[in-house]
Amino acid sequence: MSLHDGVAVLVGRNGSGKSAIIEGLQAISLCAIGKSNRVSYSNSDSIPKILEIEVLTPYKRHLAYKYELIPLSISTENLDLDDSISDNLGEKQFSWHGYCQYTDGNQETLWCTENGITTLVNEHGQNAGILGNIHLFPQSTLPENSSLKFPREMFWIYDVLNGVRVFVKTTISKRKNTSVKVSRNNNVFVDSSLGIAGILTQKIHRCMDMGNLDELENICQRVGLGNKIIVQKFVLSQKVVIDEDTKNNEYYFSVDLDGVNIGVLSDGTLKVLSILIEIIASNPSSTIIIEEPEAQIHPAMLAKLLNEIETYTYGENLIVSTHSPQVVSWASPEKINLVYRKDGRTFVRKLSKDDIHNVIAYLSEEGDLGEWIYSGILDNE
Amino acid sequence: MIALIAEDDTDCDAIREIVYRALGNRSVKTKKWASKSCGTLRKKLAAKLNAMSNEGCNAFVIVHDLDRNPQNGSLNDEGNLRTILEVAASEIKSINRYICIPIEELEAWFWADPETIKLVGRGKGKAQVNPHQIKSPKEELIKLSIGENRKPRYSTNMNVELASRLNLDLCSDRCPSFNNLLKFLRSL
User: Fold this and answer.
1) Is 50 exceeded by the pLDDT of residue A77?
2) Per-residue pLDDT reduced to its tens digit, A340-368
């Protein structure tokens, strides 16, 4: 799957493998940077074992990174909702191979990993072996006079994989007023039974800490999601709202959008809100992946949401899967990736030069890209 | 009632704001059609004009970007585009119609006004004497709006707000496509 100007739109029939690509990219990228505790191995057959990515470095060079997962055992550990990186190397759920090399210039090899042992070449040409996920060892942990230097490319790869954010289709099964507990040291505890509303409340608390709440409110207004976000801090036992500085007190935190608690907002509203929060907070090395942004969203709001996504992911990577002619029409032909199954395998291909030539003529005289894509071009795949 | 026809909802909304300001009357009735693509606009223009005329529209503003040729990057022929649109529009008997062809994108107009650019760029950026010469004006606005945290802040959803602040006379001086639109609206 190749991105054009950082964007890829995945189009294909049901069962072609779009979701598998998205979930697979998320799972294997988490493994590659040591967030293995967030990957469920109870269904490990459904995730891919190999990840190959190409990274354009800040010095405009092309870097290829290949990661191969070797599961050793099965764990039924629950997913961890916390974004922090696991430093638990003792899980021993898997081993891995890895390989990193420039694909241009002198095609230098940077490191390779065999069964979890990474070999680096230092500046004197000597090999050094490191056990464990190397991304979890910052350079600062090494002695100052150490001859071992982690290559900067390692951190670029880490940034790219760590920046993968996925929005899959979700259904909110129950609605109830939602608040989260905030400890004295400002840690937010989310009861998993609160579902997406709890997670969003936590993220809005983070938005508030980062000073982004006004911006979130502005973008909600532009998209037509709501006009006013009100956050409340209160002590549950006293049932009173806290006005004063709460830094040294434990408290509960809730969010209302136009006077409605976040826990009872509609599915579509929560979905749009979750995307907006994430694109505001993402950084230029992020890869935002959205599965069917059209699901649960009115076409007029979808058009405005796509406008904001276009802006806020500018310069970042964006991967969108869709069944919507509206979303397809929002993209340019070069960004379309056709997903199809053949002989039991999923394939992805871009439109050919002839396809693009034809579609440009069609766009100029006849209709939009969505109509063209869904007019039968996929039938031969 | 004025019919507003453009390729995109945000374009229609921005044009409506300019109509209100040019006429000095926010109670004037409008009806919009966003075609979603230039091909659809051309193909369905005649039928849509008829339908909107039957629904009571007696003045028509048709906005169609002058796109670039994706093969070589050069601007398409404006005269040719205008002829195509005029032929489609000729089915309407009303003489109150204007075909507006912004060079590349309507967002080029915003580059004419220093205050609008200051708003998008949060104090940085410089307005252009010849906004029509800017390549990819919308993308350039997004780039201009990138803040210290490296995130852009301008989206086309802001076009209505920008249209409400745009210096109409300055934009008219600097953008021929806007100049003729403003003349048409003020003649109504």
Assistant:
1) no
2) 999 988 999 999 888 888 888 888 778 88
Question: Distance between CA A217 and CA A235 in Å, rounded?
Answer: 25
- Mark whether B100 and B111 lie in a shared domain: no
- Picking from A264, A288, A319, the residue at the C-terminal end of a domain is A264
In chain B, the number of structural domains is 2
> Which residues of chain B fall below pLDDT 70?
94
Is A322 within a domain?
Answer: no
Q: How confident is the model at residue A139 (pLDDT cuts 50, 70, 90)?
A: low
Chain B closest-CA separation from residue A332 CA (Å): 11
Contact check, Cβ <8 Å, B36/A329: yes
Specify the DSSP class assigned to residue B153.
Answer: -
Kindly list the residues of chain B whose beta carbon comes within 8 Å of any beta carbon in chain A.
9-10, 36-40, 42-43, 70-71, 142-143, 145-146, 150-158
Residue A256: CB atoms within 10 A of its CB come to 18
The candidate with the shortest Cα–Cα distance to A10, out of A365, A308, A290, is: A290
Confirm whether A284 is domain-assigned: no
Residue A148 to residue A215: CA distance in whole angstroms: 43
A92 has a pLDDT exceeding 60: no
Share of chain A above pLDDT 90, in %: 39
How far are the Cα atoms of A244, A312, B41, B170 from residue B154, in angstroms, in the given order?
35, 9, 26, 22
Specify if A92 maps to a domain: yes
Do residues A210 and A281 touch, judged by C-beta distance below 8 A?
yes
For residue A91, pLDDT beyond 70: no
Question: What does the alpha-carbon distance between residue A255 and residue A197 come to, in Å, rounded to a whole number?
Answer: 10
Q: Which of A134, A149, A164 is the last residue of a domain?
A: A149
Asked whether residue A333 is assigned to any structural domain, the reply reads no
Q: What is the ipTM for the molecules in this complex?
A: 0.90
**Residue B66 structural domain:** 2-105+174-187
Give the per-residue pLDDT at A28: 86
A307 shares contact with chain B (CB less than 8 Å): yes
Counting the structural domains of chain A, the total is 2
- Radius of gyration, alpha carbons of chain B: 16
Q: Establish if B167 belongs to a structural domain.
A: no
Give a yes or no: residue B168 inside a domain: no
- The mean predicted confidence, pLDDT, of chain B is 92
Q: Does A329 sit within 8 Å of B142, measured CB to CB?
A: no
Task: State whether residue A4 sits within 8 Å of chain B by CB.
Answer: no
Do the chains contact at A366 and B43, CB–CB below 8 Å?
yes
Domain with A217 in it? 176-264
Q: Which of B113, B119, B125, B108 is nearest to B176 (CA)?
A: B108
Whether residue B157 and residue A329 make contact (CB cut-off 8 A), yes or no, is no
Contact B70 A360 (CB under 8 A): yes
How far is residue A128's CA from residue B26's CA, in Å, rounded to a whole number? 73
